[in-house]
Amino acid sequence: MRTAFGEKFDVPPGYLNTASLGIPTLTTANAVAASVSRWAAGQADAPDYDLPVRQARTAFAELIGVPVERVASGSGVSPLVAQVAAGVPDGARVLVAEGEFTSVSFPFAAQAARGVTVTAAPLDRLAERAADFDLVAVAVVQSADGAVVDLDGLRASGARVLLDVSQSLGWFPHDLAWADWVVGAGYKWLLAPRGSAWLAVRPEAADWTLPVAANWYAGDDPWKTVYDLPLRLAPDARAYDLSPAWLAQAGAAAALPWIAGLDLAAVRDHAVGLADALLAALGLPPRGSAIVSIAGEGVAERLAEAGIRCATRAGRARLAFHLYSDENDLDRAISALTRGNGQISESI
């Protein structure tokens, strides 16, 4: 058991895989377990989950710096992005990063029958090319290698912008009220269960957001819109809500408010400090990201043998340092990567 930032985590030594799956606080794990117990005992009642949905939604809004009325709740990134992709005009030109996570790019590519085109460009050129497109859809931090997009450049471009914060929110301080859409999953750096996700919609972007998954929970009063017509959706971003995964929301309601109460600059400094220390030990320059992508012969095998839990993405080992990572994890990774004569390099 580890203690970090005032919470306890049952995280094993060498766990550097938060970019795939975050480890919950003990409080969050207990909240989910208690919710399962109430369900199993026949004590759960559907309206009881409205409060955790509201608590998680409110915390997500706080984390990205927007009013809660702008935030829709869902279960995954791609179904939320799909409501944007379905709403862009026929013939819209969309710009994405090369190698972008497909939950961001595929919903737009699926609109090809309407003449919507999707163009991929290097991440470091998105800002300079953005003005030539109707919309830019990109992750703030890239899943494959941890590269960080030029947010200031995108903001100044004048293009509509959709940002995916799934690999950044929780360690990277954000103030994204300017972005047209902000989407994020809860099960990575936010340390919530899979099945929780959110979409923030700027009021000026509502004309390009279509509630294609309209359902009872998106109604103006969910417990009065469970039957019959006419269509009566919520007057704010709840109109884009997806029916909640209740147990996941029970965990998100414990996880997100806690993270929203942290000093995220301190979390960033801790996680990035460990990541950059690993790069320095390998003779590589710092990058200011909590995610490190390492290429080299036998790298994944050496890490696994040393008890390092990480992922392989785009043919490289991906290590992710979060608030519960510590010096022992760092030393274990350094030892594994500096053992032997195989050449090591970082993906840029």
From TrEMBL:
Protein name (database record): Aminotransferase class V
Native species: Actinokineospora fastidiosa
InterPro entries named in the record: Aminotrans_V_dom, PyrdxlP-dep_Trfase, PyrdxlP-dep_Trfase_major, PyrdxlP-dep_Trfase_small
Source organism, top-level taxon: Bacteria
Residue ranges constituting the Aminotransferase class V domain according to the UniProt record: 53-282
UniProt entry keywords in alphabetical sequence: Aminotransferase, Transferase
Entry's Gene Ontology molecular function annotations: transaminase activity
Family matches, as Pfam families: Aminotran_5 (PF00266)
